[in-house]
Amino acid sequence: MNVVDRQFGASLTTLKGRQYAFDDVSCMITHVANGTIAEEQVAAWYVCDHAHPGALIDATRAHFALGGDFRSPMRGDAAAFSDPKARDAAISEKGGEPLDWEALREALAP
After folding, report:
1. How confident is the model at residue 5, as a pLDDT?
2. Which run of H or E residues covers position 53?
3. Per-residue pLDDT, 100
């Protein structure tokens, strides 16, 4: 699958090494929450760094902005950043709520 917007893409890797790509972190969260892939089979979660489009970072360590003027392809409207200062600067410009991985998963859960 080709990711539509490299600022918002996401990917996961299973324990068997299979990779899944998503246009939006919300799609990845929903895919696992709905049981399409069992969470215990996920080896790694990745998201694109909004400040560095296309660069994948560990989603569990990322700093997220949700809402505001962030407009992701599938309307999850969450942006990930490797640097909390970059996230905070983006929130100052575009609005939104700062979240960590667990809070984002809770906010976007179906």
Report:
1. 79
2. none
3. 98
pLDDT of residue 110: 86
Residues counted in the chain? 110
Specify the amino acid at residue 40.
E
Residues of the chain where predicted confidence (pLDDT) is lower than 70: 1-4
Q: In the chain, what are the domain boundaries?
A: 10-108
Tokens (6 digits) for 36 = 């399409």
Torsion of CA 99, 88, 69, 20, to 10 degrees: -50
- Return the structure tokens found at 62: 């990322």
Position 6 scores a pLDDT of: 85
Q: Report the C-alpha gap between 36 and 81 in whole angstroms.
A: 27
Distances (CA, A) of 82 to 22, 32, 62, 72, 86: 19, 23, 5, 18, 8
Residue 1's pLDDT is 54
Per DSSP bridges, beta strands 56-58 and 10-14 are: unpaired
